[in-house]
Amino acid sequence: MSSHHSSESRYHGVAILLHWVLGAALIAVFALGVYMADLPFSPQRLKLYSWHKWAGMVILILSVLRLLWRLTHRPPALPVEIEQAMPRWQAVAHHATHHGLYLLFFAVPLIGWAYSSAAGFPVVLFGLLPLPDFVPVDKALAELIKPWHEISAFAMAALVLLHVAGALKHALIDRDGLLQRMSPFGK
Predict the structure, then answer these.
(1) Rounded Cα distance, 113 and 57, in Å
(2) Residue spans of beta strands (DSSP E) within the chain
(3) pLDDT tops 80 at residue 186
(4) How many Å apart are CA 68 and CA 61, to the nearest integer?
(5) pLDDT at 111
(6) 1-41 pLDDT, tens digit each
């Protein structure tokens, strides 16, 4: 297959920037969440939880921007030769992964915000801007919500890994140049 694709098959620079910034933020906030989850109660743990919540809100804002960009700027079509070479199950997996990621871009931070609100720990963005409670303080509700934040975060991590695996397959096995569409280094 050809590894050359026209500029019409590349994503716009804004889409590329949002993709990589959101991807890096997701990895960082997930790693922080896993690290801090079992820490003993301490000022350090409270600080990390605050950072985790800030990052979640930034991810939510980036997700809104990414969705708005996507809705107002049509992404490039998959090159015909790649689309024709892709088995049906891969096409279904490709679309399901992207739709699942977009759903979880919103669900994970919103569930986290709901949990934090229900637990009585408000989100104060960057330590400066208090956000309204997403749900009323209710300890029983917090206990119901808490596992869903973790489950949805691990589901998103799994989809991110699946997305990366698909990208690596195109780069290392298919060698079809598909990664150039989202490369921050252009061409």
Answers:
(1) 8
(2) 124-125, 129-130
(3) no
(4) 11
(5) 98
(6) 444 444 468 999 999 999 999 999 999 999 999 999 999 99
Distance of CA 152 to the CA centre of its chain: 11
CA–CA distance, 178 with 171 (Å, rounded to integer): 7
Output 174 or 102, whichever has higher pLDDT. Answer: 102
Q: Which long-range contacts (CB under 8 A, 24 or more apart) does 85-92 make?
A: 85/1, 85/174, 85/176, 90/166
- For residues 93 and 54, the answer to whether their CB atoms sit within 8 Å is no
pLDDT at 187: 62
Residue tagged 């609100």 (tokens)? 117
For residues 21, 161, 51, 137, the Cα torsion angle rounded to the nearest 10 degrees is 120
Q: Which domains can be identified in the chain, with CATH numbers?
A: 7-182 (1.20.950.20)
* Collapsed DSSP state (helix, strand, coil) of residue 176: coil
Q: How far is CA 73 from CA 13, 23, 25, 85, 118, in A?
A: 11, 20, 23, 26, 37
Helix, strand, or coil here: 125? strand
